[in-house]
Amino acid sequence: EVFMDELRKSGDSVGARVSVVATGCPPGWGEPVFDRLDAEIAHGLMSINAVKGVEIGSGFDCVAALGTEFRDEITPEGFLSNHAGGVLGGISSGQDIVAHIALKPTSSIRLAGQSVDISGASAEVITTGRHDPCVGIRATPIAEAMLALTLIDHALRHRGQCGGGVCATPVIPAQVQPA
C-alpha cells in the first residue's frame, strides 16, 4: 500500500504480474493442434488491455530446466508436478490450470513525456486527471473472468463433440465464497 501511495503521489506507474488458477477442470478439454487449450487461454488473456505476456504453468522457466526436471511425471497416485500448467499437448490434464500475465506500466501518467505533433515536430505530452499507478489490481478479476470464459467455451465444445458426458465447471478460487 505504501509503495502504491508513493507511486501515485509521484505521478508514475508500474507493471504487474498476475496469476490465475482454475481447479476442477477435467482431463480432455482442448485439441492437439488448432484449438489447443493453452493457445486459447493465451489468446483470451492477451486480449486484455495492457497485457504484454502470458505464461502457462512454469512458462519461460522451461528454458533453464532439463527435461528430467520439467516434465510432469505421472504415477498411479497422480502427477508429481504441474510445470505445464494443467495442459499437455493442448489438452487439459485434470490438474489445476495455471496462467500468469505480465501487464505493462500505464503510459498515461502525470510526468511529461516526449512525442511529436501533427506536423512531426517534437512535442511534450502531459496527461492530466486521474491515472492508475498499477493496472494489475483492476486486471485480476478480468483475467479470472477471461480464463473462466475460455474454459466454459471448451466445456461446451467438449460436450458437443463427445455428447452425453458430464460437464464439470472449473472453480476459480477467487470466486469461491466463504462458507
What does this structure look like?
The protein is α+β, with helices and mostly antiparallel strands and 179 residues long. It has one domain (2-175): Chorismate synthase, AroC fold (4-Layer Sandwich), CATH 3.60.150.10. Helices cover 28% and strands 20% of the residues. The chain has helices at residues 2-10, 37-46, 67-70, 136-162; strands at 16-22, 51-56, 74-75, 78-79, 87-88, 91-92, 97-103, 113-116, 122-125. A three-stranded antiparallel beta sheet has the order 1-7-2, with helices on one face. A hairpin with a 2-residue loop joins strand 5 and strand 6 (91-92). Helix 2 (37-46) runs antiparallel to helix 4 (136-162). The chain is elongated, with a radius of gyration of 20 Å. The model has no long low-confidence stretch (mean pLDDT 90).
Query: If you consult CATH, what is the topology?
Result: Chorismate synthase, AroC fold
What is the second-level CATH architecture?
4-Layer Sandwich
The oligomeric status of these chains comes to: single chain
SS class? alpha+beta
Number of domains: 1
Q: Please tell me what the overall shape is.
A: elongated
Gyration radius, rounded:
20 Å
| CATH class category | Alpha Beta
The strand count comes to 9
In percent terms, what proportion of residues is strand?
Answer: 15-25%
CATH superfamily, by name, is Chorismate synthase AroC
Order of helices and strands: HEHEHEEEEEEEH
Mind describing the biggest β-sheet? Answer: 3 strands, antiparallel
> Overall mean pLDDT score?
90
> Treating each run of at least 4 consecutive H or I residues as one helix, how many helices?
4
What gap, in angstroms, lies between the N and C termini? 28 Å
Q: Order of strands across the widest beta sheet?
A: 1-7-2
Question: Any low-confidence stretches, pLDDT <50, length ≥5?
Answer: none
Helical fraction: 25-40%
